[in-house]
Amino acid sequence: MALLFADGCSHYATDDILKKWTGMVTGTYGPFITAAAPRRPGTSSIKLGYNAWIDKSVNTASRTIIFGAAFYFQYPASNDGLQFRVYGDSTTPQCTVSINTLDSPGSIQLWGGNYSGPYIIATQADAIQINTWHYIEAKLYIHDTNGTASIRLDGEPLSEITGLTGLNLARYDLINGYSRLRAWYAASSTSYYCYIQDIVIMDGTGSSCNDFIGSVRIDTVYPESVGDYNSDWDYSTTSLEDDIDDLQPDGDTSYITATANGDRVSFNYQDIEPPANASIVGVVLNVATKKATAGYSKIVPFYRTAADENFDSSTPIYLADSYTIEQHFWPICPYSVLPWSEGLVENGQFGVIYDTTT
Questions:
Q1: What is the extent of the structural domain holding 105?
Q2: What is the enclosing helix (H) or strand (E) of 309?
Q3: Which is it for the CA torsion 213, 351, 22, 87, positive or negative?
Q4: How far apart are CA 46 and CA 54, in angstroms?
């Protein structure tokens, strides 16, 4: 499976957070989707204030969890600072990676359990500055006697440790294949905020996106015209492309709909603008969906070129009674079975097929 979650935070609003994320605290201090301090012009990030948190559950039976996230401190962070907690069940943290800048120099720490759990690693991180975007990565192998942990900042290794006993396997729910990442800002003042963006979660399996992938950026592009399949699905207002290209989901204001099993729709997307010498480590299709009638239904994403099209029926998107933002991942191009290139992304079409079979 490898890549389990990716979020550039730029294609939905604050009210849509729980359509994509699993949980969050609600209150005066966030989380919020904001364009106030973007990592790149024209993008958005998640703003976390005093004791605000947001989390995402993923389905994996792997003992390896890899995550990465860009972060930005508006003010110096306290000793427990920005925390990334890895859970193996619904309530108990396996371990916590915390980042602070209040000390001089700043530090990144790994704890067994939550921030009050057994202390494992403390690493000086002189490079952490306020009002600057940084990128944290952690690779954790959960085991009762032989756990491992590696941490990187802005692509540079900081710490690596083996033989860990503090990552308690008894708390890790391998049977149900459940893992959860929580970002928590334990600010020392109600006026302090931090921002996160470009979040990824992986599980170390598969042939790609199964290890550190560096300081990633997740760029959002939108449909700009209909593709080869443009007659099966119906639009609600003006046209298929107008009803599908919203910068943020607008519920039942505009949408497209399918009624018959096998209905297909595909779109051409905006051009991408990767940085020079960058590698494209994956393509993620985000779809805001719901079902309008009772019964079982799903959609199957596909990638289409002039020569071929590839359906991934092994990982369909199941439709719920209310809107959710679901994702489908292509770590490599399904047509060429090679890493993605700018041309393969821009010259292909992405779409879905409606499937009512059980």
A1: 3-202
A2: strand 309-311
A3: negative
A4: 9
**Cα dihedral value 118, 97, 54, 4, nearest 10:** -110
**Co-location of 179 and 287 in the same domain:** no
Q: Tokens 């051009």 — which residue?
A: 271
Separation of alpha carbons 49 and 184, rounded Å:
9
Classify 42 in phi/psi space as left (phi over 0), alpha (psi -120 to 50) or beta: left
Same domain, 27 and 169: yes
161 shares its domain with 272: no
**In this structure, are residues 139 and 210 in contact, taking their beta carbons and an 8 Å threshold?**
no
For residue 150, list its beta bridge partners.
139, 160
Question: Which of 202, 232, 248 marks a domain boundary?
Answer: 202
Provide the 8-state DSSP code for 343.
Answer: H
CA distance 67 to 151: 10
Q: Are residues 180 and 234 in the same domain?
A: no
Residue 105 in domain? yes
Question: Which residue, of 153, 171, 202, is where some domain finishes?
Answer: 202
The two structure tokens encoding residue 61: 């039976």
- Could you tell me if residue 213 is inside a domain? no
pLDDT digits (tens, 9 = 90+) for 201-230: 998 888 888 899 999 999 999 999 999 999
Cα dist from 46 to 15, 18, 86, 196, 287, whole Å: 12, 13, 19, 5, 20
Q: Are residues 193 and 263 in the same domain?
A: no
DSSP classification of residue 52: E
Query: Is residue 81 within 8 Å of residue 98, measured between CB atoms?
Result: yes
pLDDT digits (tens, 9 = 90+) for 243-264: 887 778 888 999 999 999 999 9
What is residue 345's three-state secondary structure? helix
State how many domains the chain has. Answer: 2
Q: Is-contact 83 183, C-beta < 8 A?
A: yes
Q: Which residues pair with 179 in a beta bridge?
A: 58
The answer to whether residue 217 is domain-embedded is no
Q: How far apart are the first and last CA of the chain?
A: 23
d(CA 51, CA 141): 27
For residue 275, the 8-state DSSP code is P
Q: Which residues of the chain have pLDDT under 70?
A: 1, 78-80, 89-90, 102-105, 116-119, 122, 124-126, 165-178
